[in-house]
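Q: My labmate handed me this sequence with no annotations at all. I'd like to see what the chain might look like in three dimensions before we decide whether it's worth expressing. Could you predict it?
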Amino acid sequence: MAISSLIAILQLMDMGIGNALISMVAHSKNGKTDLSIKTLLVSALCALTTIGVAIFIIAMIATPYINWQWLFNYKDASLNQLATESILAFIGYFSINTALSVVQPIRLGMQQGHANGLYNTTGQVLNIITVYFAIKNKSELPTLIIASVAGTILCNIANLLTLKAILPTEALALKKIKLAGILIFKKGSGFFILQLLSVVSYNLDNIIVAHYAGLNKVPEYSIAMKIFSMPGMIPVSYTHLRAHETNAI
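A: Here is what I predict for the chain of 249 residues:
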């Protein structure tokens, strides 16, 4: 739980591309721009893949030199190697999923959010199954982490492939792909600031609890937090639904 909160900070690294894509795809779908949805997909996929590879390379170099024992406040120094391997497993997943995440904002921009829900739900079910077998086999934490996200990665790949299949076949111009990339980064800069504030507000709590109260307190806090945050998801989901209906109109 503590590691996942730390990795959530890396969500900033998409530079607001995901949120920018929703608006740009909606404009493309309504004929308000000459950039096709497929051009936006390819441009964003190239950008996010580059970011994902860069994150993984930097992590491979830097992670062994970071004092995780101090940050997560665990007492047993023999856990240092396990912590490093676990963090690298999470970052590996994040790097792969950074590129695959391009499909979800495009689906939203096309008013196909229900498809994301279907793939996400299927991925979570597969995650539960793979975690069950990992626990039955008494796997160590890095393997457990991989098992907990394997379904999500597979379903994101399937989501991306099915999206590509339904888009019109067209010849892509390199010039337009570059133009789309510039516009995506430009539009995403404002969303980047919002994402920064969101990360500070919602993703640092587990790390703070670990550092000051001890790693064993993180599950107690995090599980209780998830349970009591469930009622708040209902009005948020309703608000998102109404917003999508308004955009469709």
